[in-house]
Amino acid sequence: ILSLPPLLLQTPLRGWVVPRAHVSAKPARTPTSPMEQAIGLSVMFLSFLTPAGWVLFHLESYKTGSTK
Asked: Does the keyword Phosphoprotein apply (predicted)?
């Protein structure tokens, strides 16, 4: 049985650097207005729901295999 020195086993583990998240307990420098929040949420919802709505609207044509 081959015995490896402990240094060979520990060296690769030292190279792993885990990035730390920059978390701040301070409030935002520039607060987001309710209008900006509403616009942002609307864009997010539309970006997810539009493709799903397109597929559901054209579901019958997908089943029949026709393109129109």
From this structure: no
CA-based angle 30:26:44, to the nearest 5? 50
Which 3 state secondary structure label does DSSP give 25?
coil
Q: How far from 67 is each of 51, 58, 59, CA to CA, in Å?
A: 17, 9, 11
3-class state of residue 56 by DSSP: helix
Cα(43)–Cα(33) distance, rounded to whole angstroms? 16
State whether residue 66 is helix, strand or coil: coil
Q: What is the mean pLDDT of each run of 10 residues along the chain (68 residues)?
A: 62 66 83 96 97 94 76
